Amino acid sequence: MNEEVFSTVNHEDLIESLEQKLGKLNDFCNLTSLQRKAILDENINELNSLIQKKEHIIKTVDEIDNGLSKLVSLIGEELLSNQVKYLDLKKQIHDQLKQALELDEQVRDGMERLAQKMVKSMKDLRLGRQTIKSYYQKSAQVEGYFIDQKK
Predict the structure, then answer these.
(1) How far is it, in rounded angstroms, from Cα 121 to Cα 119?
(2) Residue 77 and residue 75: Cα distance in Å, rounded?
(3) Are the C-beta atoms of 61 and 29 separated by less than 8 Å?
(4) What is the pTM assigned to this prediction?
């Protein structure tokens, strides 16, 4: 295999990997938006499901990044800096990452508010249970406490 074909194959693999990464980042942003909706709806089960899906995407992006770093080292950063498609995909990925960080920050704030609301609800519930328990508690003494002791 001559060097030109080898370089073309690596370059195509690199572009394909960058496109995969961009697609996964789009999926991540979509899940983050759904996560924000689940927080507003206070749907904890949906929120947990979305978090698991996002974790899977993060692992996939990490694997793609490992492959990308190997390809970049094979091709060389100088050669890539002249490739318009490569630079365009890198910019799109950078923009997508910024958007994902902003959305994730909003979700984190929403999750903190939801957690505080749940803690308050649990305290209110505990206080309500204690009140009911105290109200319906049976007295230990059946007879009156004060007995007239006139002599």
Answers:
(1) 5
(2) 7
(3) no
(4) 0.69
Q: 119 CB contacts (<8 Å, ≥6 apart)?
A: none
DSSP state at residue 137: P
Q: Where are the beta strands (DSSP E) in 42-93?
A: none
Query: At 142, is the secondary structure helix, strand, or coil?
Result: coil
**Nearest to residue 79, comparing CAs of 8, 2, 150?**
8
DSSP 144: -
For 28-43, the pLDDT digits (tens) are 999 999 999 998 888 8
CB atoms within 10 A of CB 54: 19
Q: What's the half-sphere exposure (Cβ side, CA atoms, 13 Å) at 20? A: 17
- The CB density around residue 22, as the number of other CB atoms within 10 Å, is 18
DSSP state, residue 143: S
As a whole number of angstroms, the distance between CA 11 and CA 74 comes to: 10
